[in-house]
Amino acid sequence: MRKPLIAGNWKMFKTTEEAKAFAASFKKIYESSDIQVAICAPFTQLGALKEAFKGTDIKVGAQNMHFAEEGAFTGEISAAMLQEIGVDYCIIGHSERRQLFAETDETVNKKLHKAFLAGITPILCVGESLEERDADRAFDVVKSQLVKGLEEITAAQAEVLVIAYEPIWAIGTGRTASPEQANEMCGFIRDVIDGLYGEIVADKTIIQYGGSVKPSNATEIMNMEEIDGALVGGASLVPEEFIQIVNF
Ligand SMILES: O=C[C@H](O)COP(=O)(O)O
Q1: Which domain of life is it from (predicted)?
Q2: pLDDT per residue as tens digits for the range 163-178
Q3: Which of 28, 178, 192, 196 has the most crowded Cβ, counting Cβ within 10 A?
């Protein structure tokens, strides 16, 4: 059976002191269960969080990485640098990276390959804009992101991959996809994985929903059959809110 993953994406929020304070409070209210929990934090907070979560089963993730081994890429971070800290996950291809930092399906694909080589589990983000949904292109857009993003990714890698369906129109807007809409797309994503790698792999791939997940809607979303977790932005910043989602 798939173990659901609820991951916080802190985006560009929290200093190291604030991250440590979050970890201290969260550990007090967190109880380990059959839900995997992770916090994807800014690069400078990853080491502190690994240290703070030592002895727990809470995982730590980055929000981006470069696809090159090393080189003259000012401001970038390599997979080996994340691996050295012991980072478990890395979000790849978040829509904010695609929209604001010119991330393409090609760079997403290169990053996925590098993450796997470093033993880091990628959380591959896909999702359509409002214009694309209104034009009835949501399924084509998501399929294309998957097919291009997963080029030459093996079945063994696809089995451990996490995919996050994040409709751009539901991110940070307070507007959530309905549980049915989210479930429909997550089911479609599983069908695409089935088409690429077969049913055994598709049954194992974790498919999350992300976009304005909060304590008040987490239960309904998490209870949908095709949804194996959530990628939570704003509501992951406050321990007392995030724990309610984790304990949906
Ligand atoms: O990665 C997380 C998503 O962008 C969702 O963010 P949000 O929960 O603040 O809407």
Answers
A1: Bacteria
A2: 999 999 998 887 778 9
A3: 192
